[in-house]
Write a structure and sequence with these properties.
The chain is globular and about 40 Å long. It is an alpha+beta fold and 171 residues long. The longest helix has 34 residues, at 2-35. It is built from 5 helices and 8 strands. The chain has a 5-stranded mixed sheet with strand order 5-2-1-7-6, with helices on both faces. Strands 3-4-8 form a 3-stranded antiparallel sheet.
Length: 171
């Protein structure tokens, strides 16, 4: 009987921890949405040697995120589309091939996310000037005809707890 009680207590701890993570992620996503200057997102992913891009709203983006904690304890919200989501975007024509996947390869100065931002910017005829360090509460990564757009790559970070704190202090 004692073993069953301990097992139930452990299950209860796991459930509350998972619930806490969902609450933390929901709070971070809500705060991000409140302060973000961009309301449109271009999200990229690799599939079968191609690099795809799909444009979506913030609400749609929230269906493709995951809560993580870095090794240093910083809470993060990352872009994560399931395989089914990626296939659906391709099948319905919303995801378009914008380059070969090998163009994303990181180099000594830029990671894959930076290279994706460069590829998207150039596809809109916007000169890419290097890594964007403008905070999300100031502007999107690119502005197309007055529309602020954030550019994110599958697996990349949408936001983190420190960025949310900075946005709250700045606004």
């Amino acid at each position: 009987m004692f073993g069953v009680i301990l097992a139930l207590q452990e299950q209860s701890k796991q459930k509350s921890s998972c619930g806490k993570e969902r609450k933390e992620m929901k709070n971070m996503v809500t705060e991000y949405g409140k302060y973000s200057k961009a309301h449109s997102y271009i999200v990229g992913f690799e599939r079968k040697g191609n690099l795809y891009a799909v444009k979506m709203s913030f609400v749609e983006l929230t269906n493709s995120i995951r809560y993580t904690v870095s090794s240093r304890g910083n809470e993060q919200v990352r872009i994560y589309m399931t395989s089914e989501q990626r296939k659906a975007y391709i099948m319905n024509g919303r995801a378009v091939v914008i380059a070969k996947a090998d163009e994303l390869e990181a180099d000594s100065k830029h990671n894959k996310g930076d290279n994706f931002e460069r590829i998207v910017s150039e596809s809109y005829g916007i000169a890419w000037t290097g890594k964007n360090s403008v905070p999300f509460w100031v502007a999107g990564d690119i502005n197309v005809n007055g529309e602020e757009i954030q550019i994110k790559l599958q697996g990349g970070e949408l936001t983190n707890s420190k960025a949310i704190e900075s946005a709250q202090l700045a606004c």
